[in-house]
Specification:
Elements lengths: L4 H22 L17 H11 L12 H17 L2 E2 L7 E11 L5 E4 L2 E4 L4 E3 L5 E9 L14 E5 L15 H15 L8 E5 L2 H14 L3 E4 L20 E2 L10 E4 L4 H5 L3 E6 L1 E15 L10 E7 L4 E6 L2 E4 L2 H20 L5 E7 L7 H8 L8 E7 L9 E5 L9 H13 L4 E2 L19 H5 L4 E5 L18 H20 L15
Parallel strand pairs: 6-7, 6-10, 7-8, 8-11, 14-17, 14-18, 18-21, 19-20
Antiparallel strand pairs: 1-13, 2-9, 2-13, 3-4, 3-12, 5-11, 6-12, 13-17, 15-16, 19-21
Helix pairs in contact: 1-9, 2-7, 3-7, 4-5, 7-11, 9-11
The protein binds zinc ion.
């Protein structure tokens, strides 16, 4: 997925040159005298110390909806208080609480039976869908999912998973065997679209078998959402729909039939046409997550009522399955880097205050679907129209030291040329990164622009950019640890982000939204 280096460099430089020329034309004061003295308050030693604390094993991966996210949030609040940032959350605190709505398979009322054997969900079988249902019947064994000559209409079919096409296996996230298994399951299910089976029992091959517990640990978490929140996707409803009723599957469903994975050891029994039945029930409940919000008031009596919003997310993926002997998915790059960059920026803004106010928002539950930013964009602590820019820091400490990405820099993602100009000027003065523009393209296979907390704000026409050093092979694995961060690079990324906000906060005019901006993927 990583773009070719030469192509990256070429279009990066052309774009940067064009925009930088535009920026320089508007800003005659470019030079050392433009740099605030407080830039030196952004110190690598602070960044490194705080990152080791926030992404240490004691924080247990900061998973949203668990005490671990709350512990990390309280740790950040203590730092903001030390720095002198003013609380802007509920009841005079730094906390803006919201409830996530969580939907998951009920372990007490879901089970499967094969003749007289009872199978426990997650231990013996894994449901691959998200719907309460009942299905039963004699099992029809198929040797090969690619064989479409057998009539499976109205049957509960058991079949070994097929070997996935290499190109369909993701290159980042999770262990290799889990990535393989997800591709194998998707490919096998796809073979049964529109063939009329009632249900599929997929039998693991050796790699999927090795991935079984990992797959269970990922899927048992269910899904998370938040009610009354700004949309992430075009057309996403603002209010959550209630759970659909339990489905009694007696005739084939539209599309791909309900599917379940079992371990390879069940193959022998399934070949003997046992009577099979599966009962799946979902449960839905609310569970808290939290945004952390604070402000440094600006000095200008008028402009201080406008806000530059610095954004990061404090949550990560928690304690999951073991990879290389480690089960803590610590999220050092994702997103302790952005989180400590905000602390360092707050120190600099406290030392030298700008004209506009600076709002710091740590979004909870980003990893569960941008839930904290969707919630805050809908329920901002200051009027949304007074937020002049969102600067989102997300994964800023990996990959080669001299390149980075600014997302929201080119159409259709760019919503404010003014803001981009501030950011490019700041880069020229601090980070001096070669900007890799491929990751901001709508054609990029990762869709990177749409995967972080600036998106709900951008959709509401707040000028927004994201600072990132992009994906890497340790992304969303237990290998994303503090010792793998490039602290020199992270410090330069932080200075770049800080200086952009300094420019925006002191500029006579707020950044304008580009005419006709509309986010479509
Ligand atoms: Zn992240």
């Amino acid at each position: 997925m990583r773009p070719s280096h030469a192509a990256t460099r070429r279009c990066t430089l052309r774009l940067a040159a064009t925009l930088l020329a535009a920026a320089l034309a508007n800003t005659p004061s470019l030079g050392a005298q433009s740099l605030p003295a407080a830039l030196n308050r952004i110190r690598e030693a602070d960044i490194k110390r705080e990152l080791y604390a926030l992404a240490g094993d004691a924080m247990r991966g900061r998973e949203a909806g668990t005490p671990d996210e709350l512990r990390a949030s309280a740790w950040i609040v203590d730092r903001l208080r030390e720095i002198g940032v003013t609380p802007m959350g509920q009841d005079g605190t730094y906390y803006q609480w919201f409830n996530m709505t969580r939907t998951r398979v009920s372990t007490v009322s879901s089970f499967a039976r094969l003749n007289n054997d009872t199978l426990a969900v997650w231990r013996d079988f894994i449901p691959l869908g998200n719907r309460g249902l009942d299905v039963s019947g004699p099992v029809l064994w198929l040797d090969n999912a690619n064989d479409s000559t057998v009539n499976v209409q109205g049957r509960v079919v058991a079949v070994p998973v097929i070997t996935p096409n290499r190109a369909s296996i993701r290159t980042t996230v999770n262990s290799e065997d889990v990535r393989y298994a997800n591709a194998a399951l998707a490919a096998t299910q796809q073979r049964f679209a529109r063939r009329g089976a009632l249900a599929l029992i997929l039998v693991a091959d050796s790699i999927t078998n090795a991935a079984f517990d990992g797959l269970a640990s990922l899927r048992l978490r269910g899904t998370y959402d938040v009610n009354d929140a700004a949309p992430r996707f075009a057309g996403q409803p603002r209010y959550l729909a209630p759970l659909p009723p339990v489905l009694n599957v007696t005739t084939p469903v539209n599309g791909t039939p309900p599917a379940f994975l079992v371990r390879s050891s069940r193959a022998q029994l399934l070949r003997n046409a046992p009577q099979g039945s599966i009962q799946l029930r979902l449960e839905q409940f609310e569970t808290p997550s939290v945004n952390i919000v604070g402000v440094i008031r600006g000095t200008d009596p008028v402009l201080r009522n406008e806000y530059v919003l610095y954004s990061a997310h404090q949550d990560h993926d928690g304690v999951r399955y073991v990879m290389d002997g480690d089960s803590v998915w610590a999220g050092a790059d994702d997103n302790a880097t952005g989180s400590v960059a905000l602390l360092a920026s707050a120190r600099a803004f406290m030392a030298q205050k700008p004209k506009r106010s600076v709002l710091f928002v740590y979004h909870g539950a980003e990893e569960r679907g941008l839930l904290g930013s969707r919630y805050h964009a809908q329920h901002p602590v200051v009027p949304l129209k007074d937020i002049v820019a969102v600067l989102n820091g997300e994964m800023m400490g990996r990959n080669s030291p001299d390149s980075a990405s600014l997302l929201g820099v080119q159409p259709p993602h760019r919503n404010s040329t003014d803001l981009v100009e501030h950011a490019l000027r700041a880069n020229a003065l601090t980070g001096r990164f070669a900007l890799d523009s491929l990751w901001d393209r709508p054609t990029h296979p990762e869709g990177w622009y749409f995967r972080s907390d600036h998106v709900p704000y951008a959709r509401l026409d707040v000028p927004s950019v994201m600072y990132t050093s992009n994906l890497h092979p340790d992304y969303h694995t237990p290998r994303d640890k503090p010792e793998r961060i490039d602290y020199g690079k992270l410090t330069r990324m932080t200075r770049w982000m800080y200086l952009t906000g300094w420019f925006v906060a002191n500029a006579p005019a707020r950044p304008r939204i580009d005419p006709g901006f509309r986010l479509e993927r």
